[in-house]
Amino acid sequence: MAISSRLQIGDQFDHFQIRNHIARGGMSDIYTAYDLLAGKEVVLKVPDRMSIGDPAQYERFQRELEVMKTLNHPAIQKGLASGTYNNTPYLVTELIKGESLRDFIARSAPMNAEDAIALIMKIADGLLHCHENQIIHRDLKPENILITPEGQPIILDFGLALTKNSHRVTYANLSGAAGTPDYMAPEQIEGHRGDNRTDIYALGIMFYEMLKGEVPFHGDNNLAIMAQHLKGSVPRLDKEIHGLSRQVAAIVSKCLQREPELRYSSLKEFINDLENPDQVDILILDKPTGLSKTASWWRSPVVVSVGTALIILITIIIIALLLQHFHK
Ligand SMILES: Nc1ncnc2c1ncn2[C@@H]1O[C@H](COP(=O)(O)OP(=O)(O)O)[C@@H](O)[C@H]1O
Ligand SMILES: [Mg+2]
Predict the structure, then answer these.
(1) 99-305 shares the fold of 12-94
(2) Closest ligand 1 atom to the C-alpha of 42?
(3) To test the ligand 1 pocket, which listed residue (157, 158, 169, 180) has its Cβ within 8 A of the most ligand atoms?
């Protein structure tokens, strides 16, 4: 029989003794527990009451563990094991002592640019490690990042992550779709799988939030916020925040372009711009971030090359006609 209610402090679950209920995630309850075999404190993630019977949960935890095992970086949570006990799947991860980026932002944002840059760089570094290993997180938000007392951010929750081999995974029924849309990229809202630029968008929203103290898009409900991501334009941060450089505002803006093609194509470029602000292209600030394909179809490489070819052809014809005319 599956465990149908929340575990209690002192309960034994497999070879774990439950110590504390620390959080309710998108679809899970998270506990600290003492691993009686390993003799150390760990974090145990089990499906919550709503998703306990969902057969996808076991697969989800297994994949989450696999993803964590592929990665090895100070900014990435370490996975220890996954299993099933009394028909209840579970995931074991290393215990991280610290506060969530959500609480950190609530306490310290708006942050000064220097501190925000230092923090976002550390997160970007971990995320770059994911991307270099062909893993897209797809559910980046301040709830899924913890900060240790030493100031090291650690990315968690790879439950929605896309790997090279996980072709079947979509957003349907997963926490990303059920959770806050504040960090969701437009292509994600439209139901696409997303790629590294989807994570870069979410990173950009967190960067914006650290600097401004609030996310760029607001609405009465999730649908209204999603519509903003699809149709709205992000306010220019250099106009919003007194003293913020145009370079930093341009970097945020490049992350938050509606069209993935207009964003950074890799986190290396993002990190490089932060390290070398003199070379940042600030012209991007003059264009709204919400520029869509329909508004810029004439900029597409195909249209531009066909157009150029046509202009050359017409010029040649005109010259030929003129030559013919004067030779008569
Ligand atoms: N290893 C850990 N150490 C400390 N806290 C954790 C750890 N893993 C998760 N948490 C806490 O539990 C919350 C939910 O975990 P998460 O993995 O995001 O679950 P879900 O997939 O259900 O959203 C996190 O926001 C964090 O506060
Ligand atoms: Mg989570």
Answers:
(1) no
(2) 1
(3) 157
When computed from its CA atoms, the radius of gyration of the chain, rounded to whole angstroms, is 24
**Any atom of ligand 1 within 6 Å of the Cβ of 157:** yes
Task: Provide the whole-model pTM.
Answer: 0.85
Any idea which ligand is nearest the CA of 19? 1
Specify the CATH class of 99-305 in words: mainly alpha
User: How far does residue 159's CA lie from ligand 2's centre (Å)?
Assistant: 8
Residue nearest to atom 17 of ligand 1 (CA): 157
Instruction: Looking at the structure, give the CATH architecture of the domain made up of residues 12-94.
Output: 2-Layer Sandwich (3.30)
Question: Tell me: the pLDDT tens digits for 109-162?
Answer: 999 999 999 999 999 999 999 999 999 999 999 999 999 999 999 999 998 898
> Is 35 tagged catalytic?
no
Query: How far away, in angstroms, is 303 Cα from ligand 2 center?
Result: 43
pLDDT in tens, 226-263: 999 999 999 999 999 999 999 999 999 999 999 999 99
For the chain, the domains span: 12-94, 99-305
